């Protein structure tokens, strides 16, 4: 569990890469610059930890590309104390970013192996989500709704209705929608039944699977 000066230097280079790609939110950049991404990865990929790429982790999942994490985080416009629902805890890297942004994070993971590993691992690094849950992300978390924002970290063939329903008025859902290639999509809740939709180009994610527990 070492974080060396070399790692810190590589992280700063990664922050510069993200700035050059158009990420401007200082708090998001600071979070990327602070979180030891190499500790979230399989040892065979450690040398690649600060490249702007996705890499495999347990249970046939991936740790997202830093640019994607930063891009989604920036769209959420998180303020300290915001209540955020994350669908797809995965390695916990995105969860850590949300925690550093000051969010109260509720995160759902459907892969038991990953859920167990990440639940033990995140607190060791000092990132404390409000709740890590093993379950089906398509259903959201009605008992904790409404949320200031919801982030989906896997490709969804369609937008799960429960997630839209669990947003506060003014809240944001950021979700990659599509089958093979996803369009990063943001919904802003304007009223009980009114949503504003924005699209932000193509991304690639592992699929969000329903009822697969």
TrEMBL record:
<dbReference type="GO" id="GO:0004719">
    <property type="term" value="F:protein-L-isoaspartate (D-aspartate) O-methyltransferase activity"/>
</dbReference>
<dbReference type="InterPro" id="IPR000682">
    <property type="entry name" value="PCMT"/>
</dbReference>
<keyword id="KW-0489">Methyltransferase</keyword>
<feature type="active site">
    <location>
        <position position="64"/>
    </location>
</feature>
<dbReference type="GO" id="GO:0032259">
    <property type="term" value="P:methylation"/>
</dbReference>
<keyword id="KW-0808">Transferase</keyword>
<dbReference type="GO" id="GO:0005737">
    <property type="term" value="C:cytoplasm"/>
</dbReference>
<dbReference type="GO" id="GO:0030091">
    <property type="term" value="P:protein repair"/>
</dbReference>
<keyword id="KW-0963">Cytoplasm</keyword>
<dbReference type="InterPro" id="IPR029063">
    <property type="entry name" value="SAM-dependent_MTases_sf"/>
</dbReference>
<comment type="function">
    <text>Catalyzes the methyl esterification of L-isoaspartyl residues in peptides and proteins that result from spontaneous decomposition of normal L-aspartyl and L-asparaginyl residues. It plays a role in the repair and/or degradation of damaged proteins.</text>
</comment>
<keyword id="KW-0949">S-adenosyl-L-methionine</keyword>
<comment type="similarity">
    <text>Belongs to the methyltransferase superfamily. L-isoaspartyl/D-aspartyl protein methyltransferase family.</text>
</comment>
<protein>
    <recommendedName>
        <fullName>Protein-L-isoaspartate O-methyltransferase</fullName>
        <ecNumber>2.1.1.77</ecNumber>
    </recommendedName>
</protein>
<dbReference type="Pfam" id="PF01135">
    <property type="entry name" value="PCMT"/>
</dbReference>
């Amino acid at each position: 569990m070492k974080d060396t000066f070399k790692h810190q230097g590589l992280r700063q280079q990664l922050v510069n890469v993200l700035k050059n790609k158009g990420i401007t939110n200082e708090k998001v950049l600071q979070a990327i610059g602070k979180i030891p991404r190499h500790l979230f990865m399989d040892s065979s990929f450690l040398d690649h930890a600060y490249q702007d790429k996705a890499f495999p982790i347990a249970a046939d999942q991936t740790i997202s590309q830093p640019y994607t994490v930063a891009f989604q985080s920036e769209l959420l416009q998180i303020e300290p104390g915001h209540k955020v629902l994350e669908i797809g805890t995965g390695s916990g890297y995105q969860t850590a970013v949300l925690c550093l942004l000051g969010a109260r994070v509720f995160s759902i993971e459907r892969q038991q192996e990953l859920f167990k590993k990440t639940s033990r691992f995140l607190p060791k690094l000092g990132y404390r989500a409000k709740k890590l849950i093993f379950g089906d992300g398509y259903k959201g978390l009605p008992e904790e709704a409404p949320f200031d924002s919801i982030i989906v970290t896997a490709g969804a063939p369609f937008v799960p209705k429960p997630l839209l329903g669990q947003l506060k008025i003014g809240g944001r859902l950021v979700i990659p929608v599509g089958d093979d290639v996803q369009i990063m999509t943001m919904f802003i809740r304007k009223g009980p039944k009114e949503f504003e939709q924005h699209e932000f180009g193509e991304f690639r994610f592992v699929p969000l699977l329903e009822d697969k527990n």
